[in-house]
Design a protein that fits this description.
heterodimer, A: about 140 residues, alpha+beta, Alpha-Beta Plaits, four-stranded antiparallel β-sheet, B: alpha+beta, nine-stranded antiparallel β-sheet, 7 helices, binds iron/sulfur cluster
Chain lengths: ~140, ~400
C-alpha cells in the first residue's frame, strides 16, 4: 500500500551535516518533496517534507529517523484521545475549531469525532489532563 | 419531624438508608413533595471534580542509615521541588510545585507538563518516585546527600491535605481583550470568544448546604477516591458573600480544608493537570454527604442549575487588576446550555470542572452509604457562617523603607 504524508523533522545540531535525506531516498525508496527547510550548520535544523512510498518503506524510514535522534512531528498525523485520561471536563469544546469535540447535552460527556479532526493540535495543550495525543 | 445523624447511621448500618444524589433529589421532591421526601430520604450525596490548586500531600519517608535531616535542606521528587522545612523525614508537596528547570512562561504560554500535581498522581498510582536531597549535616544527622526511589507503599504516612477545595460557587471567566489569554480558568479567546466556568452547579457540595447547616469540621467525605474528612474551613472562606433568596451565594464564598489517607485514594480522582500558560495543578474529586435532618435542609439540596448565579469576570483586565467590575451575571442553567448572551454577543461556554465525574462521585458515595460501608459523622464544630462576620481581606501593601529593621 502506498502512502504519502507530510512531516516536520527537527534535527539536533549534531545531525545537520549528515546525508539523511540521501539515505531516505536511497535506502528506503521514498520520494520526497521539500516543502520548507531551514538548516543552518551547527544549529537545530527544521525540515518539512512530503514523504511518499510503500507503507513498509515509510515506516522503516520513520524508524530510522527516530533512531538517529530526529524528532518527528506529523502534519497530517492522527490526533487521538486517551480515554483513560479524559475527564470529560469540556474545556476543549470551545477550543476545537472544526467541531470535532462536542458536548453531549444529556450525559455531559465530550465526544471526539475523529472524522472532523484536522489535526490542528489546538486542543493538545489546552486539555488540562493532556488527554489529546499526537500519534504518527 | 426531625431526624438525627445517629438515627440515619442506624439505618445505614442495617442497609436501609434511602439515599439520593443532589441531581436525583430535584425530581424526587417534585414528585413527592417536600414533606414526604424529607421523611423518606436520609442522605443526599454531592460531588465535584476539577482543578484545585491549594492541594498537596505530606508524608514521612523513614530514616536512612546513616541518618539525614531533610528539614532545612533541599528535596526534589521527580525533579519537582518539595517543601522540606519540618523534622528530618517529613515533607510537603504542593500541587503547583515545579522543577527548577521548567521554563515556566519564558516562552509564553508555558506548557507546565509536569509539576507537583503530577507527582501526586504518580505516587498514588503506585509508581516509584525519584527523591534527590541535599542537607547540611549535623552530629545527629550526618548525611548530606540522599538519592533514592520511594514508593507510596513504603512511606510511613502519606496524607492528602488540601488548604482550600470545593469552592462554593466561582467566577465565570471571559476575555474582552484583543488577544488570547491563558489563565487558571483555561484558554480564553479574544473578543469574548468563549466563557469558562468551574463548578459542578447543582451537584456541588457547598451549593447544596449553602449555610453550612450540616457540613462542618469532622464531616466524613469522599476524597480522591477514598474517604477523608473536613478539617477546617478552607483559606479565603467568605461566607459573607452576597446571596440569592434561596441562600445560595452569587459569587465565590465558602471553601473547605480537607484531609485523608493517600494510601486508599486513586489516580482516577487525583489527576495531574496542566493549565497552559498558568501552571501545574491537581484535579481533585470530592463528595460530601448531606444528612436530611429536616425539611429545610432537604429544600436546600433541591437547588437547580437555573437557580444558581455566578458573575462573569473579565480576566484580561478586571481580574488581574483586582477590580470588582463584572460583565454580568448568569445562571448555571444558561452556562450549561452551551452558549450565553453577554454584551449582546452569543458566546460559547465550556466547563473546567467535569460534570460526569461529579455525578460518578455522588453515585459512588450513594453506593457506599447504601451498602453500609460509609457512616455519617457528626461535625465537631460548625464552619464559620454568615454570622461569623468574616470579611475577605485583600492584601494591604505597605512599602518597606530601606533602613527599617525587622
Ligand atoms: S479538555 Fe481534555 S479532559 Fe477535558 S473533555 Fe476535552 S479531551 Fe477530555
Ligand atoms: S486537533 Fe484540532 S481539529 Fe482535531 S480535535 Fe483537536 S482542536 Fe479539534
Amino acid at each position: 500500500m502506498a502512502i504519502s504524508k507530510r512531516v516536520v523533522l527537527h534535527f539536533p545540531s549534531r545531525l545537520v551535516e549528515q546525508p539523511i535525506i540521501y539515505k531516505l531516498v536511497k535506502d528506503y525508496n521514498l520520494v520526497l518533496n521539500i516543502l520548507k527547510a531551514s538548516v543552518t550548520p551547527k544549529e537545530e535544523g527544521l525540515l518539512i517534507l512530503e514523504l511518499s512510498g510503500a507503507r513498509e518503506d515509510y515506516d522503516r524510514g520513520i524508524q530510522y529517523l527516530t533512531d538517529i535522534g530526529v524528532r518527528i512531528q506529523s502534519l497530517g498525523q492522527n490526533i487521538m484521545r486517551n480515554d483513560a485520561r479524559c475527564t470529560h471536563c469540556g474545556a476543549c469544546v470551545v477550543i476545537c475549531p472544526t467541531g470535532a469535540l462536542t458536548l453531549d447535552p444529556k450525559t455531559r460527556m465530550v465526544n471526539f469525532h475523529e472524522d472532523k479532526c484536522t489535526a490542528c493540535e489546538l486542543c493538545v495543550l489546552a486539555c488540562p489532563p493532556r488527554a489529546m495525543e499526537v500519534h504518527f | 419531624m426531625a431526624k438525627t445523624i445517629q438515627e440515619i447511621n442506624e439505618k445505614i448500618r442495617q442497609g436501609k438508608a434511602v439515599v439520593a444524589t443532589a441531581e436525583e433529589i430535584i425530581d424526587l421532591v417534585k414528585q413527592k413533595g417536600t414533606q414526604k421526601a424529607a421523611r423518606e430520604v436520609d442522605v443526599v450525596t454531592t460531588g465535584t471534580f476539577g482543578p484545585m490548586c491549594s492541594s498537596g500531600i505530606y508524608f514521612n519517608i523513614g530514616h536512612s542509615r546513616p541518618r539525614i535531616k531533610l528539614g532545612g535542606g533541599r528535596v526534589y521528587l521527580n525533579d519537582v521541588l518539595a517543601y522540606a522545612a519540618f523534622a528530618a523525614t517529613d515533607l510537603y508537596l504542593g500541587a503547583n510545585a515545579l522543577p527548577d528547570d521548567d521554563p515556566r512562561n519564558r516562552f509564553h504560554p508555558g506548557e507546565f507538563n509536569y509539576g507537583g500535581g503530577h507527582v501526586i498522581e504518580d505516587l498514588v498510582a503506585g509508581k516509584d518516585i525519584r527523591l534527590i536531597a541535599t542537607a547540611y549535616g549535623t552530629n545527629c544527622y550526618p548525611r548530606r546527600k540522599l538519592e533514592t526511589w520511594i514508593n507510596l507503599k513504603d512511606l510511613n504516612e502519606a496524607v492528602l491535605f488540601n488548604l482550600r477545595n470545593a469552592y462554593q460557587n466561582y467566577n465565570v471567566a471571559a476575555n474582552t481583550s484583543e488577544k488570547t489569554i491563558y489563565t487558571y480558568m483555561g484558554v480564553l479567546k479574544p473578543h469574548l470568544g468563549n466563557i469558562n466556568y468551574a463548578t459542578a452547579g447543582q451537584l456541588s457540595p457547598l451549593l447544596n448546604d449553602p449555610y453550612y447547616k450540616t457540613i462542618g469540621i469532622g464531616t466524613r467525605i469522599f476524597l480522591g477516591g477514598g474517604t477523608g474528612y473536613i478539617t477546617w474551613h478552607g483559606t479565603q472562606h467568605n461566607p459573607h458573600a452576597p446571596r440569592s433568596e434561596n441562600g445560595v451565594p452569587r459569587q465565590s464564598a465558602g471553601t473547605l480544608a480537607v484531609i485523608g489517607d493517600l494510601k486508599q485514594m486513586s489516580p482516577r480522582w487525583l489527576v495531574g493537570t496542566s493549565m497552559l500558560g498558568y501552571g501545574a495543578t491537581l484535579s481533585v474529586g470530592i463528595g460530601v454527604p448531606i444528612p436530611i435532618l429536616s425539611e429545610e435542609i432537604l429544600r436546600y439540596t433541591t437547588v437547580k442549575d437555573e437557580e444558581i448565579f455566578a458573575p462573569v469576570v473579565d480576566y484580561s483586565e478586571a481580574y488581574p487588576g483586582r477590580s470588582s467590575e463584572i460583565l454580568g451575571e448568569v445562571s448555571y442553567g444558561e452556562l450549561k446550555s452551551g452558549k450565553i448572551l453577554i454584551q449582546e454577543k452569543e458566546v460559547p461556554t465550556a466547563s473546567l470542572s467535569s460534570y460526569p465525574r461529579a455525578v460518578e462521585i455522588a453515585n459512588t458515595l450513594k453506593e457506599w452509604i447504601m451498602k453500609g460501608e460509609f457512616l455519617l459523622t457528626e461535625p465537631v464544630a460548625p464552619l464559620p457562617g454568615v454570622e461569623a462576620g468574616i470579611t475577605f481581606k485583600p492584601l494591604n501593601e505597605r512599602p518597606i523603607e530601606d533602613n527599617r529593621r525587622i
